[in-house]
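QA checklist item 7 of 12: single-chain prediction sanity check.
[x] sequence parsed
[x] length recorded as 163
[x] structure emitted
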Amino acid sequence: MDMILLLGVVTGMRSMTAIAALCWAGWMGLVPEHGWAIWITYLVSAIIFTACALGEYVADTLPKTPSRTAPGPAIVRLIIGGLIGALVATAIYEPVAGGIILGSLGALIGTWGGYWMRMTAARMFGRDLPAAILESLSALVLAVVAIERLHHSIAFDLQRQAR
């Protein structure tokens, strides 16, 4: 379940990165989905959310982009974090409500923690653009790490059940 929290943190940092990564993992068969969550295994889902993530990376570097801590963007991140949690919980046959809570909590941490880290980095660099790029790269790396851990957790459970 720690992968849910980590993917929620990624969502707080960059709202579309975790869901894009999860869709690619689903399409590649690394995270098998079933039931209502099967839509993440479709290539079209991965492409759409990747396009959204790339757009967010660009928009995040623009000076007129609203702060993620403003009520609207923060609420959207919490909702997407809850969706990520529900999707992962479904994949690993855990309670969806717990996934929603952990995903939203992670998004909360990523929203305000990521903001604090970015502002600190921007002060160190003397400008925001390098901090924004560093945060985007960090979110991407954390998403890949979480998906890799999720995949290994699922593979381990399948091996254990086969015995």
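[x] summary fact logged: The chain is about 80% helix and 0% strand.
[ ] second reviewer sign-off
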